């Protein structure tokens, strides 16, 4: 009953957990009884059985149109697995080198990229295995597909080659430059040259080490190339335009690429496709050629000889004596036949046929100062000319043909030489010898002297010649040799010819030229020229010579300089393609020889007034420092000129001349150098206008001409525009000596002359004058209008009648004068000032008595002092003065005082102030006045009170302005007439003109700087022109205006402005204060402003100084207070008070002068620049 059940494979279909059963009917041993055996079958997971697969591909056996290596196959279906496990999981599977695309049915396709380096690197016989795992449909069971990749032999490859070299240089080609590759072979590769370059040459080194040209299809191993045995050599001076691979599209010299050749790479079996090897040649500039020609010399060539045969020249005798030299020369010069021409090197001929004429011409080089003696014998007629001058001549009949003559050249040079000879009859000959400086004679030949047929023989050798310097006759002369690289200062020096060129002349390079100079003084410059262009060049400067003519260069050194300079000439070649440069330089020395430079002088011009003397000094210099002398070359046409040896000159125009004039001064350095200085003069007429202010504040304005303005007049006489009735009572009694009478006459004439001068000026008032002479009684008298033409002569008649005698009668003259003031002429002079001057030398000794209105016994008619007459007689004894005399005199004075102001003047010492005070309007008479001071006493009679503050405007023209009164020592009166009198006394001119006065004041200004305590505070404006301003006393404001002005501030604290131009600020002794406490302080507002070189003039202020810094330092202290420069002046020197202070407003004097802030530095600069004047 035991049974065994064996399950077969059909149950494999059951999956895990699936149930199945099988019931089996079994028979019992009886064979009939049956029973069943039921088997339950439970499924399990069966693992299928899989078989691997394989395939293969071969390198480079790609599917057409692709780069793929492909193969395929089918995996056997799995067995023994569960149902459905005979399939595979489909998909794309990645291997090491490729991919497997698997279908569920087991079909697969493998592909790999043939370009993979690992595949391409396979050699023949080498394999790669790519095993890819595949999975059964059960997702667990796997098998493999193995692909074998079989290698093959690959052909080498190349992408083309490229190399760069340098112009004119061969260079080895590098293996790497061929870009050869072979996956199979490395060092076993080689290069086959399949075509050759058109430009340049491809070379290889043979077994002997020699370079040979590569032939087409020649092969070179990598080892050969690595050993440097293959090179490219470009053609000379050729290159590419760019240094970059242009793929060989444009080949050749100066093209994009220079050359190329074709090649293949071989591995011994296979060869690559053809590759192109491109070659570029980088342009490299070649150093250009540069040559500086040596100083040329001309090799002697001999002389030109011309011979005429059958030419008769005779004096008609035909005796063989010869003809005159002139006839000889004329005949040969006029020869019309054809001459035989040759070149000779020795001037001689032993056999000359009859009627043969010979002319020898050319040039001979002779040296300056040497004596050349030409001598010899000639038969029959002979003449020799050197430089166009006949040196020797001869004829047979005169001196048997013997001749000798000397020639001494003034300069070295090439002199024309001409010889004439003729044989008249018989045997003829000529021979010319020369001796030098007395040495023995030698043949005149090329071996003795340098002889040339023509100038072209010399210039053709590169020697430069001057133009012909002709002889005075116009025949012949000489040429001087223009030296190269050597010449005199301040002249153009020719430079040796310079030539240059490009070595590479195919157009790829350009050439430039430049020049630099060394050896010039610092800060100087020279000039360079080629005759067309001229440039200025300093030391170290580089001058481009492009476009210049290098055969005509000239050099000129700095002005007045001599020495040597080095010129460096540089030629530079530049490659057009890449700017590469190469230069060649050479040096040459130019020597500048010293020469005597003529001095240099400046011209000058002056504007002056007629009869004014102007002076100056010729400004001249000599670069060599030679001492200069001066003298008149051409005098002035309209004046007197003086010039001393030091160049100081003066000029005074002729009297009455105005206009332009000039004179010329020679300036000599004593060594032949000379120049001239022209002094131009403009003589202006004096157009003088005089204006005088009054006691009151005035504003005076000038004209366009010359003005003299006087701000104030302090005397009664003469106020501008004021009418006057003036009476003069003159005592001529017996106590007045005859000498005093004579002096009084002169004094009165002076008074009346000055008064009339004032009376006839523009704007003057009417002036009536009454002159009466008295002694015992009033004597001669006269009344005149001073403006009338004969006024002075009329007054002079009374003056002349003065005579000493009699007593002194005050009463009669008082009444006489009182009546005149009440007369018609005086009364008609409206608003007139009535002024009487009463002059006497003693007390009254007479008077009038018994006055009555009607005539009586012994009574005479006399003025009554009331405008009428009375009848009276004389009382008193003529010797004594009693109370009656005094009383009568006082009573008469009272009548005069009613109609006139009276100034009493006591002449000499015979009468006192107390005696005269009853007869003076203010009781302040003048007493003890000498007879010769009467005019001053009258004209100086002052008004009371200080001067007014005036404003004076000069305007255009050269003006003289006085801020206050003019009072001059020893001169009566004041104003312009006092100036005239002063000038007359100083100059000796009896009657100086207004112009004389004007010129004198300009020339002696310091004499008129007068200040008085009563002077006013004035404003003076010079305006345009050369003005002279006197502030005088007071605190004044002076402004020079335009022009070179002189300002005298005078005493007081003044404000000074120079204005435009070079102005002089001047002080005189007396302008300073009395002490440090009362020092004068003057302020200059514009000292040295706008570049004007203003001047401080202290010559008349400082006492005991000298013109040295050491001396002046004791007098002057300079301080900078942050705004102004303050100058403290001790006019008496060291240790004394500062009595004058000068403030330079808004000016730092040290900065202006460019010196340190120290007294000594400032003083030195002021003195050196002539901006401080002192003794």
From TrEMBL:
Residues 298-449 form the PA14 domain. It is found in: Secreted. The keyword Secreted applies. PROSITE patterns: HEMOLYSIN_CALCIUM, PA14, VWFA. It holds the Pfam family Big_9. GO terms for cellular component: extracellular region. Keywords: Secreted. Residues 725-916 form the VWFA domain. It comes from the Bacteria. PANTHER family: S-LAYER PROTEIN (PTHR38340). This is Type I secretion C-terminal target domain-containing protein.
